[in-house]
TrEMBL record:
Pfam families with a match to the protein in the record: ComA (PF02679)
InterPro entries from the UniProt entry: Aldolase_TIM, ComA_synth, ComA_synth_sf
Protein family (similarity comment): Belongs to the phosphosulfolactate synthase family.
Name by which UniProt lists this protein: Phosphosulfolactate synthase
Amino acid sequence: MKNFSLPFIPERLDKPREKGLTMMMDKGLSLSQTADFIEANEHLTDIVKFGFGTAFVTNDLEKKIALYKAHNIRPYFGGTLFEAFYARGMFEDYLRLVDKYDLDLAEISDGSIIIPHDEKCELIRTMAKDRTVLSEVGSKDSGILISPNKWIKMMSTELEAGSWKVIAEGRESGNVGVFRPNGTAHTFLINKIIAKIEPNSILWEAPIKNQQVWFIKLFGANVNLGNIAPHEVIPLECLRIGLRGDTFFENLPADYADRLKQVNSDDIDED
């Protein structure tokens, strides 16, 4: 949706889309807050994750799911809930739970527990028969380091097993996985990954603005980003299309950008 015309705005694909996804992290919105969120953000939000195990204790869960689905937003349970079931030997129960709530999207992760990778890929194959699967790569434990080659192997084999997208772990804190402890992007790791894995197949968890800016500058407006807070969906869209200072010059023609930057420099010199 565009309220008026403005040149040099990058094209954003309409929903449903395969790239440029925005995943909002719902950590316990009330039913009325969900309705308010949808009113403001329906056109910008592709998928919603009920963060970690919040689905277990969220009021009006069934009504919330129905509300999201009625407005073309695909909800799913966070990977930690899957891990909680799997750690208790209840994988079949988890499948029944997903079916009970009529969710077409499901996440398989091993960020908190260890699942042999061949076993994880078999779980993906099983779940992908009837559902769209998101699988997450990377540990939530900052002390567990995974080599770039292992990241690449896990991502590629999970996509081959049937994952729609692989999620690059970043947590809601944005300081593990593809990020360093200080929150900056692990550029060496990410460059290694995208040399082998199609970037549109990856959904990058990027809860912090400077992380979002970094990915947008690297991949453009239609990068897949996740773990976005409800109140940050519209600000993120403005980052994507160059209507915030951090990405203002990304889509302007070079002669415009050079001229405007020179004007700004002259103004500073005069002071």
